[in-house]
Design brief:
CATH superfamily of the largest domain: CAP
Number of strands: 8
Mean pLDDT: 93
Helix content: 40-55%
Radius of gyration: 21 Å
CATH architecture of the largest domain: 3-Layer(aba) Sandwich
Structural class: alpha/beta
Shape: globular
Largest sheet: 4 strands, mixed
Number of domains: 2
Strand order of the largest sheet: 1-3-4-2
Number of helices: 15
Length: 355
Amino acid sequence: MKTLTVVFTLISLVAFSQPAGKAKEVFDLINMAREKPSDFYTKYKEQIEKYNPKYAERLKKLKPIEKAIWDPGLVEQGRKSVENKDLNPEYKGTNTLCGSASGSSSGTLSDDALSYVCDISNNVHDPNCLYIGLYFNKSLTGYSFNFGFRCDRIKIEYTFNERVDSSGVDFNKLNTAKNATYMSAAEKRMILEINFARAYPKVYSKIIAEYLSQQSAAWGGLSPDEYEAGMEIIAELDTMKPLTILKPSECVYKAAKLHGQDSQKRGYFAHEGSDGSMPWDRILKQCPELKSGNENGAGNSSESARVPVIELLIDDGISSRGHRYNTIDPKWVYCGCYRYEDEKYGYHWVQNYGY
């Protein structure tokens, strides 16, 4: 069986050695956008403004970067996620990758190749996303994108020298989960940190600026995409009105905990549960009186609650900034955060929200 698997993988890699069909259409557009962003915008202005107005504005300022490289190993990863429902496929390509970003969709998909470029525009224009694999099934009901990060990382220098003044922050007020006996101290701290960002956005913008400065000085450096996303959230927080603070909810917490335990058992995190459930399904199952809910997931080696919140607010690599807008969504009333440990990230967080 192992021999057959190896043979099938090799056949797949050969079959995906060059992009074809819808994947080729998208790949060609991606490289046009990377190499000639101004021409790309001029040619497809109306469609881009329809699909992603923010991307249209970005394109006016973006500089050319080198072409993406087609990677059959990444295509095979995508095929497994679409055809085999494998949410954590192993990379068996020939390139040396230093990280990755991926996503998939199912159902009735768009026939317009440009829509996919607009959906993943942040990765498209990240020079560190050098390798790419795109997979579409024949019926156009399943799609996956996989980017591989280059190891000679391109970095941005950024310095922030201001003092962060949190003397006016009422941390006791933010600590809404202090009496929630079903949560650990770290989990209570996470709710406090989320409330901090929501209730004191102008202070938190400086905390993010300080973090970016530290990242820039660190060994790994600050990527162009992380820098751009960081400047974006700093500007948003500086102009954002304070939001309501979130209250702990035992049923929302239970949904987060059960999904965290499920993720820990299978060895990786995904928003789709092993039973096929999505975040809102799990939250409403545990909290039938609520109207809706959603989820953030974050992995980090730090024990601090602050670093995951900052990273989710920056949300680099995610064109929709979905994690960011979950965190600062004004409609949320309740929150439950569960933390578990795994071998890959050290600590992993499941943040559930509801109203």
